[in-house]
Amino acid sequence: MPELPEVEVVRRGLEGHTLGAAIERVTVVDGRSVRRHLAGPVDFIQQLEGAIIADICRRGKYLWVLLARDAEAAHEGQVAPIALVIHLGMSGQVLLKEPAMATEKHQKIVLNLAGATDEAGQASDLDMRFVDQRIFGGMFLDPLVETTNHEGEPVPAASSSALNLPLIPASVAHIARDPLDPHFDLAEVRSKMLKTSTGIKKLLLDQSVVSGVGNIYADEALWRARLHYAKPAKTLSPAQTRELIAGATRVMQDALAQGGTSFDALYVNVNGESGYFSRSLNVYGLAGQPCKRCETPIKREKFMGRSSHFCPRCQRQR
Ligand SMILES: [Zn+2]
Hints:
- A hairpin with a 2-residue loop joins strand 2 and strand 3.
- About 45% of the residues are buried.
- Helix 1 crosses helix 7 and helix 6 crosses helix 7.
- The chain starts with a helix and ends in an 8-residue tail after the last strand.
- The strands form three sheets. A five-stranded antiparallel β-sheet has the order 2-3-4-8-9. Strands 1-6-7-5 form a four-stranded antiparallel β-sheet.
- The chain has about 325 residues and is of the alpha+beta class.
- About 25% of the residues lie in helices and about 25% in strands.
- The protein has two domains: about 170 residues, N-terminal domain of MutM-like DNA repair proteins; about 120 residues, Helicase, Ruva Protein, domain 3, CATH 1.10.8.50.
- Bound molecules: zinc ion.
- The site of zinc ion (ZN) has 7 residues, from loops.
């Protein structure tokens, strides 16, 4: 499963090469990859063909493309009322390739783009190819709805959105802001935490409380904040809450700094097993190895069906 930094890598790649491009032709190779588009593949194709890519947005692990009717509308930030949601699932990849390049093995959807930007920064035709081996991912068109902060005021939807519109695809509206979002609201997260005795790690993984923190980053953030994964959420002090979120933010920023610039410009790749994150990890996957703070061997326990890694000394349960 791609984590937030990997999805952000894809977002940046698409942003760098497809903004302002026209979607000239759409081919659905495998209908299963557009099954979430309930009006069917023909409608999916008809609605997309001719649209301009106005922006590439992300919240947590969710990625979507804002569309515009024509270049002028795109320039003025007038977006279509529907967005193209790209769901990466377990194995989804978005590749940008020159049209003449060989077809991918698990190619499911192809968008032929005119006026995209190639590696040299020149206007060029490119294919946006959605490749998915396990077919958990897909694309669909989704109506945009207003997004607000916890006081009900409309605020921009996502991190890194150039247009900064307070609009978000309906299917993403229930997802909380992620720690890299400039409008992330720590007070709102804290108020949700104070309402429950659930173990803090479970809350950290709850996409409706804080999004984008997967299992790896949760373990890393808990280690940095010296918190046991099962500590009841409402028992965290304000300082512990701040430290925990700061830890999650830093570990994701570190991953992004390592992975965010390393991919080939015309090969935007998402792979849940990306090795480049492992170098900076302090606790995840390091069971039996000495804690980098106190040298106590790191422990691994099952929690919510997955492995939790922690230092039994730095992160005591009590
Ligand atoms: Zn330790």
